[in-house]
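stage 2 :: seqdesign
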């Protein structure tokens, strides 16, 4: 049994870090985006398969810290089956959550990142994959960076 909610959150993050879900290239993807966090050294590539406005599949490759990898893993699980608009709404919810600690709406397992706001250097790690998601959905070609976050 976990002593408190923080222990549970740490376990979810560690699980997704050690055994990331959807960690593979997707050669037949509809769109992709690269992201990097120069401060921590996180690098990733996000792959999406779209059917019209719906994200049918998502995967990622790359390397980085545990927060970055867990965030990308949870992102790929979360966005499958969502529309672009729903994914953009979730991005805004996650961004607010990791920068303020406030959880608005039902973000499911993504709530494990609410405590990241207490560690400003880790905010960039947690949000990197989400910026890559927005870049991929917009069809942007330049790699995204967390420098402005």
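stage 2 :: out
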């Amino acid at each position: 049994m976990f002593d408190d909610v923080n222990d549970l959150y740490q376990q979810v993050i560690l699980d997704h870090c050690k055994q990331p879900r959807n960690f593979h290239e997707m050669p037949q993807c509809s769109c992709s985006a690269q992201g990097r966090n120069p401060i921590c050294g996180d690098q990733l590539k996000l792959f999406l398969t779209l059917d019209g406005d719906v994200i049918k599949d998502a995967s990622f490759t790359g390397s980085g810290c545990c927060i970055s990898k867990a965030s990308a893993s949870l992102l790929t699980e979360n966005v499958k089956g969502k529309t672009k608009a729903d994914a953009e709404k979730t991005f805004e919810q996650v961004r607010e959550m990791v920068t303020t600690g406030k959880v608005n709406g039902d973000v499911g397992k993504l709530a494990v990142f609410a405590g990241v706001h207490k560690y400003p250097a880790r905010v960039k790690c947690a949000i990197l994959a989400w910026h890559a998601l927005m870049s991929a959905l917009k069809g942007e070609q330049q790699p995204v960076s967390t420098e402005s976050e």
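stage 3 :: structure notes
- The two ends are 36 Å apart (CA to CA).
- The helical segments are 5-18, 66-79, 84-100, 120-138.
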